[in-house]
Input
Amino acid sequence: MTAKRNTQGLSDSAQRKRQETFKKVDKGIQQLIKTQHPITFSAVAEAAGVSKAWLYKEASVKQRIEQLRDQSRQTGPSQRRESASEKSLRGLNQTLRNRLQTVEAENRELRRQNEIFGGYLLRIRELEKQLQHLEAENQQLKHLKTGTTHNTRVYKQDLNALGIKLNSTLRNLIRATPNAIVETAIQALEEALSRGLVSNPGGFLHAAVKDCWQPNESLGNVAELDTFNEWWRWAYDQGLVKAATQIDGVQHVLTADEEWLPLDTALTRYPMDTAIANPPLP
Output
């Protein structure tokens, strides 16, 4: 009875060890599949910690390993090639992304530089316009300087003949005034002098040049001229008037209060007949 029980115990123990070995082999195979490792007897033996002899001895295990090995040979390289291809594509994709970021950064920098250069170009064009304007103005000033110097030289002899000595004020005014205006003012002075209407030729000419006076044409006949001359001498002697000329075609006189009045207004304001009829009391 004792020998029979021992034999049964050994059989049960061997069976348990065999089942545990099956489990270890199955676990090793699952691990190899999970890690995509090729399925071979050597790989399974190493993963499960068993001998290859045991794997070959167990028919079911042997058959399973051979099937998985054949499947691995058929699908494994393709899967590995696909995995390598995906990895290559991921690397290429990252390279393209990096290149795109670099190009975008370069593009932004070029745009910024273009804006700066565009601003410089606009500024240069503005400066060129200012330079052209200043050059034109400079030429005008040179021409004006040459022309006005000629004015004083040409008119100096005429003004001396009219009893006018050029001072700095009158000289500067003539230099800054076009020839036509100066000539017209001198004509107005000559006409006023011929009628005895000017006591200060220099002051008269200064006002005539400054205000662009025209020669007197308002007194159309000798009778009117005599009447005006008579009134003018009386008003001048009374200190009521200082000068006379034509402004915009109308005869004007300059009062002692520095007010220019049309002749008609002056005759009304300072009537000579009334003053003669009512002389001031001694």
Q: What stands out?
A: Strands lie at 241-247, 250-255, 260-262. Residues 59-161 form the longest helix (103 residues). DSSP finds ten helices and three strands in the chain. The CA atoms of residues 243 and 254 lie 5 Å apart.
